[in-house]
Structure formats: structure tokens, C-alpha cells
């Protein structure tokens, strides 16, 4: 392995070193994904120690590099070509820029695939077959290859040919029908504020890859993994989806309310909204007793959770009358005192500044050559491992930053060949980026 970037500064207590001691160190991953689902997943593999090689188009790179503002600022305060969107999902990777439309470029990728343990791609169904980069072609020469395809709708079915995007999938997969306030309150279907369908799909894909790795340790053979955004989205309808399958009743939108637990939503304090999330009848009793209305716990309309769900339209206004009598801070302190789950509705400044978030190291700072400050702040990995902790070895790479390094290391390519490919536009060596 080549030398790694300087260790990132962070607020957690996890010691960081230049040496890659991650759980997946030694694994080689060829990453032919772009946008969010694939890159989020492969970043997880990279954080855990895998050598992830991000294949990008010469010059342009991943589409998300241009998805801004905001962009990383240079020393003069000017925008660079690195967007926050791109930076969020490409840490700990190395970038190799190769023209897939060029036959020599295709041959380079095939050679890299023969050296890889894992290949992850999110091209349209059949899109890589014409390059000889499909699973059937590559597995003949590298039977140990674990090949993961991430698409909008999967490798089969009537929609398999369609492209898929997070917003579209949230709509088709049902989550938007559950998100937002009811029609009678002037509500409408609303998507989740981040690309959650992409992210969950990426996590499912990486779980499958790790399972395939375990199986390969027994059989010596890889396999093809087919993961779709729509399938993943439907899978995380969880209790709401299962309730529909059980009853045939189509659930509606409840705003911040919970379909099966009451009270479990936002409430009005004297200075804004906060959250109460009672999980059982005992917590409800402690809540209304502390609020000065213990008789509500004995009221047959509200005594059991099943009763409160049926009569939420009566209970929630009564509780809001009580919660408006104190500030958010007073309520949160009181809820903590009586062991009833509750908390604030934080904006991002408040979320990243929360003492618990800070303590857990959920912001990391890494060196970056284009940054005016010399560093870039990124969201930390949530996984805490006692023996092989996550390491922040490399900042998100620039286009083609590691082309020479990887082709020399993986394929023993000499300078003459690199120079020839570069002059012919087959590769981008990352010069002047």
C-alpha cells in the first residue's frame, strides 16, 4: 500500500495513524459508481480500510462535483471544482480518470477488474456489457470477483431499463405518501430532505457485499449482487408497509405523529416546538403527572396506548395546552428528569454543535490541497469499533489524482505507457487539478 494522507483531526477519542489497520485492509475495490447510492456505500468500505479506486471521466469526473453551490473555497475565497455534495461521499478513495468510451480505456478497466476483489457499478442495465465489463465477462477471468450492480429498478422487471433517481424513487416507493401533514391540514406529500433512498440502497449493497465476502472465504468464488433503489425503498416502509399488507388499509400522512404510538410527535412550548416520544403507558403516566394532569392517565380514553391512538384527536390538543405553559428548555430538562424520551428539533448548526454529537466525533477535519484553510470538514463515520476503528486516511480525491499511482501499483504500468495514454486522451493524470 502507498503512504496515506495525514491523519484527520477530529473530536472523538479514537487514535488515528497513517497505517491502514482497518477491518477491510488488503481488499481492493473498483468503484464504477457516481452520484450518491454507490459512492456512499463504497465510502463505507473505504472507511473500514478497503482500497477503493474511484473510476472517473477525465476532466469532468463524478457528476456531483458540479452539484453546487456550495463549493470548497480556495485561498482567495473563490469556488473550486469540489462541491459539498461530492465531498460528502468520497473520502478515503483514490481517483483514477479513464475514458470508458475509448477501447484502450476499456482494456485498462478490465485489467484493474482482474486485480480487484470487489467491483461496484451503477450503469444502466447492460450498459457495461458492450465494454466487456459485465459480470459474466469478468467472472470468467476472475471467478473470485464480487460484482455489485446498483440500479434504479434492478436487473429484471418491466422498469429495468429506466434510470432511477432518489426523488423519483421516494415517490414511487411510497414514502412520500407517508411524509407531510394531512390533506385536511393543508398538507401535501413531501420527500425526505436528503437522498435517503440512495443512502439506504448503498447500505444494503454494502451489507450484501460483506455477506458475499464471507461466503467467498468458504467457496473461493464471488457472485453477482443486484440491488435496486425501488426495492430498497419499499423494504424500509417497515411497520407502515407491514401494517398495509396485514390490513389492506392505505395509511395517510400524520405530520410528525406516529401511526402506532401516542403521544409521539412535536408539541408546542411557549417558545417553539420540541419532541415528546413516549414509548409505553408508564412513560405517559409520568408525563401527564409531571405536567400537572395525572387524571389523564386514568382516563379510559387515554389509559392504554391503543386507546390513545384511537383518540389522538382528543389527546394531542389537551397536551399542547399543557406544553405551552413552559419553554422548550424547561420541558426537555423535565422530561430527562422523569425518564420520558424527549428533545429539541435542531437545525444543522445545533445538530453538529450538540455536545453528544461533538463527543462522538461526528465532524472530522481532513487536509485538502484546494482548500483555502488547508482542510475540509466532513461528516464522521458513525461506526465505533474497539479493535479496528475507522480511520480517516485520505480526503475526497481530485479527478485523476491517483491515476499514475494506481496504474503503477496495480498493473505495473511504466512511464512510457502512461505518457502515451495521457497524450491520447485515454487517461487523465490529474495534472493542474
What's the SSE blueprint?
Blueprint: E1 9-10, E2 28-32, H1 37-47, E3 51-56, E4 71-73, E5 79-83, H2 84-87, E6 93-98, H3 103-115, E7 118-121, H4 135-141, E8 146-151, H5 166-172, H6 175-178, H7 196-219, E9 224-228, H8 229-235, H9 238-247, E10 264-269, E11 272-277, H10 281-290, H11 295-298, H12 305-310, H13 312-323, H14 328-337, E12 342-344, H15 348-353, H16 355-359, E13 363-367, E14 375-379, H17 403-411, H18 415-423, E15 427-428
Parallel strand pairs: 2-3, 2-7, 3-6, 7-8, 8-9
Antiparallel strand pairs: 1-13, 4-5, 6-15, 10-11, 11-12, 13-14
List keywords for this structure.
433 residues, alpha/beta, Rossmann fold, formyl-coa transferase, domain 3, 7-stranded mixed beta sheet, 3-stranded antiparallel beta sheet, 18 helices, elongated, disordered N terminus
Brief characterization of the structure:
This protein is of the alpha/beta class and 433 residues long.
Amino acid at each position: 500500500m502507498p503512504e496515506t494522507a495525514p491523519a484527520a483531526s477530529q473530536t472523538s477519542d479514537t487514535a488515528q495513524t497513517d497505517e491502514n489497520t482497518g477491518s477491510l485492509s488488503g481488499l481492493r475495490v473498483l468503484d464504477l459508481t457516481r452520484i450518491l447510492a454507490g459512492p456512499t456505500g463504497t465510502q463505507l468500505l473505504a472507511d473500514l480500510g478497503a482500497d477503493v479506486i474511484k473510476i472517473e471521466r477525465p476532466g469532468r469526473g463524478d457528476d456531483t462535483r458540479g452539484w453546487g453551490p456550495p463549493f470548497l473555497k480556495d485561498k482567495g475565497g473563490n469556488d473550486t471544482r469540489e462541491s459539498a455534495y461530492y465531498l460528502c461521499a468520497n473520502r478515503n478513495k483514490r481517483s483514477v480518470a479513464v475514458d470508458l468510451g475509448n477501447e484502450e480505456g476499456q482494456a485498462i478497466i478490465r485489467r484493474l477488474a482482474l486485480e480487484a476483489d470487489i467491483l461496484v457499478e451503477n450503469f444502466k442495465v447492460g450498459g457495461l456489457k458492450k465494454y466487456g465489463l459485465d459480470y459474466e465477462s469478468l467472472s470468467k477471468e476472475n471467478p473470485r470477483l464480487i460484482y455489485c450492480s446498483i440500479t434504479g429498478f434492478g436487473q429484471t422487471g418491466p422498469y429495468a431499463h429506466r434510470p432511477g433517481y432518489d426523488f423519483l424513487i421516494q415517490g414511487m416507493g411510497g414514502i412520500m405518501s407517508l411524509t407531510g401533514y394531512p390533506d385536511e391540514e393543508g398538507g401535501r406529500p413531501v420527500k425526505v430532505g436528503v437522498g435517503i433512498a440512495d443512502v439506504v440502497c448503498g447500505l444494503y449493497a454494502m451489507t450484501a457485499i460483506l455477506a458475499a465476502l464471507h461466503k467467498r472465504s468458504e467457496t473461493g468464488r464471488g457472485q453477482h449482487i443486484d440491488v435496486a433503489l425501488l426495492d430498497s425503498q419499499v423494504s424500509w416502509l417497515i411497520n407502515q408497509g407491514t401494517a398495509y399488507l396485514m390490513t389492506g388499509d392505505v395509511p395517510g400522512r400524520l405530520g410528525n405523529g406516529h401511526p402506532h404510538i401516542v403521544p409521539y410527535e412535536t408539541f408546542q412550548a411557549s417558545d417553539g416546538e420540541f419532541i415528546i416520544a413516549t414509548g409505553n403507558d408508564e412513560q405517559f403516566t409520568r408525563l401527564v403527572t409531571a405536567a400537572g394532569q395525572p387524571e389523564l392517565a386514568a382516563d379510559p380514553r387515554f389509559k392504554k396506548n391503543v386507546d390513545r391512538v384511537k383518540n389522538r384527536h382528543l389527546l394531542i390538543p389537551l397536551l399542547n395546552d399543557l406544553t405551552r405553559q413552559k419553554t422548550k428548555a424547561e420541558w426537555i430538562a423535565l422530561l430527562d428528569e422523569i425518564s420520558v424520551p424527549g428533545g429539541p428539533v435542531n437545525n444543522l448548526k445545533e445538530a453538529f454543535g450538540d455536545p453528544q454529537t461533538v463527543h462522538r466525533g461526528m465532524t472530522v477535519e481532513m487536509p485538502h490541497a484546494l482548500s483555502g484553510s488547508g482542510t475540509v470538514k466532513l461528516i464522521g463515520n458513525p461506526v465505533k469499533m474497539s479493535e479496528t476503528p475507522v480511520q480517516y486516511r485520505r480526503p475526497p480525491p481530485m479527478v485523476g489524482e491517483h491515476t499514475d499511482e494506481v496504474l503503477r501499483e496495480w498493473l505495473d504500468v511504466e512511464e512510457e505507457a502512461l505518457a502515451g495514454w495521457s497524450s491520447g486522451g485515454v487517461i487523465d493524470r490529474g495534472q493542474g487539478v
